[in-house]
UniProtKB/TrEMBL annotation:
Gene Ontology BP, a term: regulation of pH
Segments passing through the bilayer: 45-67, 87-104, 116-140, 152-170, 177-200, 206-224, 236-253, 259-278, 321-340, 352-374, 386-408, 423-443
Alphabetical list of PANTHER family matching this protein: NA(+)_H(+) ANTIPORTER NHAA, SODIUM ION/PROTON ANTIPORTER NHAA-RELATED
Domain of life: Bacteria
GO molecular function, one term: sodium:proton antiporter activity
Subcellular location: Cell inner membrane; Cell membrane
Organism: Arthrobacter echini
Name of the protein this chain belongs to: Na(+)/H(+) antiporter NhaA
InterPro entries, per database record: Na/H_antiporter_dom_sf (IPR023171), NhaA (IPR004670)
Length: 472
């Protein structure tokens, strides 16, 4: 059963070190921490690219900026003569969604979400964080006409890079369970957004190229599943063998009318998570053995070796966080505001109001409501070292919608339209408000958790694993 005050909250007269700590898999803790570090760097680059784009779009350099964004190149017979902005949205973001697919598959196959009682809370929170903002947006824009309603999915997305960057800056002492909760929520959120794009923002679907895409996808999956060790031993091999097949799948999906970023997820799901010869049952048994050993302070068994998914994630994440997503943001976030009058017109548009209210208010309400319902009606519970105030902070932080929100705005309204420009202003404003409010709350919580982080570093028996992961 969920609790209103976490067991790690300070007790006025209790001495340091008298707190009760819960445990999770230490290897998983290290893996999540590594991902968060990379996403934090990506978030910084994303913010920098956004600021530069806004400056260029609202200065004398605006004509040059929009000329580059709208410049078209490619191969027209395959319907691939696209603008630079479209290439960044359809092509580069496929890399981002590929990584999201890898992370999601790994979490459910061999990660902390392999158990239903662990997975149900953040998954339900993600669903609530998608449904409620969409309903709020529709309620606000219903009278504005059918064109405005095309943006109903814009406020449903959470930007992993931005949200994690904020969490890293203001919440360095927050417990790992809270970071894992945010990361899991955002990954599931991305999967839901991908599904929305595939089903609601893909028009005039041509089935022949979609069916034809199954052939290279099957070859790609066979190679990845049959020879994972080869691709791990030879860093050049995925680029020479898997990448060309992936590009063909991407091109055929793009030709079919389904948004091409969906191809990134399909390709990710074809990658094996576990090393060859290790079944999911073996992986679960090994992970459970680690948890049991930590719980009883026994010697922790060695972790399973990395699978191909981990290897590719390690190699590709810098490309996504350091190049693909910032470039997309650079060409997507540049909006000519038009001075004070233009800004006022933008933020008073029902579309903009709907987006801002849905991000800042609807997103946290949806996440909290779903979390409360699940923890009160099932055996699922929050991690023992989390308090509800922590979840509130993360729920507000999840209102930072950027990358996928910008993409859905362009799909719904068309790049460069008035509606798209107003939506993008609202996405930026709403995300900024959510980030600031969450930062204030989480900064206060981070101070109270500082002692916990100090405890996590203590390794009195010098066995390489902090004692907090071995205690009852």
């Amino acid at each position: 059963m969920a609790h209103l005050a976490g067991p790690t909250d300070p007790v006025p007269d209790s001495p340091p070190g008298s707190r009760i700590f819960s445990r999770s898999s230490y290897p998983e803790h290290l893996r999540i921490t590594s991902i968060l570090r990379k996403e934090t760097v990506g978030g910084g680059l994303l913010l920098l690219a956004t600021v530069i784009a806004l400056v260029l779009a609202n200065t004398a350099a605006a004509d040059a900026y929009f000329a580059v964004r709208d410049f078209r190149f490619g191969y027209e017979p395959w319907h691939l003569e696209l603008s630079v902005g479209t290439w960044s949205a359809d092509g580069l973001l496929a890399i981002f969604f590929f990584l999201a697919g890898l992370e999601l598959k790994r979490e459910f196959v061999a990660g902390d979400l392999r158990k239903f009682d662990r997975a149900i809370v953040p998954v339900a929170a993600a669903v609530g964080g998608v449904v409620v903002p969409a309903l709020i947006y529709v309620a606000i824009t219903f009278s504005a006409g059918p064109e405005a309603l095309r943006g109903w999915a814009i406020p449903t997305a959470t930007d992993i890079a931005f949200a994690v960057a904020v969490l890293a800056v203001v919440g360095s002492h927050l417990p790992s369970a809270l970071r894992i909760f945010l990361l899991t929520l955002a990954v599931v959120d991305d999967l839901l957004a991908i599904s929305i794009i595939a089903f609601f923002y893909s028009e005039d679907i041509a089935f022949p190229p979609l069916l034809l895409a199954i052939v290279p996808l099957a070859v790609y999956a066979f190679a990845a599943q049959r020879f994972p060790a080869f691709f791990q031993r030879h860093p050049w091999s995925p680029w020479v063998i898997l990448l060309p097949l992936g590009i063909i799948v991407w091109a055929l999906v793009h030709e079919s009318g389904v948004h091409a970023t969906v191809a990134g997820v399909l390709l990710a799901f074809a990658i094996p998570v576990l090393p060859r010869g290790v079944t999911r049952a073996d992986a679960v048994k090994s992970a459970d053995a680690v948890d049991a050993a930590e719980a009883s302070a026994d010697e922790v068994p060695a972790a399973q070796p990395d699978g191909l998914a981990d290897t590719l994630e390690h190699r590709i994440r810098p490309l996504s966080a350091g190049f693909a997503v910032p470039v997309f943001a650079f060409f997507s976030a540049g909006v000519a505001v038009g001075g004070i009058d233009g800004l006022v017109n933008a933020i008073t548009d029902p579309i903009a109001i709907g987006i801002m209210v849905a991000l800042v208010i609807g997103k946290p309400i949806g996440i909290l409501l779903a979390t409360v319902v699940v923890t009160k009606t099932t055996k699922a519970a929050l991690a023992p070292d989390l308090a509800w105030i922590d979840i509130i902070g993360v729920a507000i932080l999840a209102g930072v919608g950027f990358t996928v929100s910008l993409l859905i705005s362009e799909l719904g309204f068309g790049q460069g339209t008035v509606e798209d420009d107003h939506a993008k202003v609202a996405i930026l404003a709403g995300s900024l408000i959510a980030a600031l409010v969450a930062a204030v709350l989480l900064l206060r919580r981070s101070k109270r958790y500082r002692e916990i982080e100090e405890q996590e570093r203590i390794d009195a028996d010098d066995d390489g694993i902090p004692d907090v992961f071995e205690q009852q």
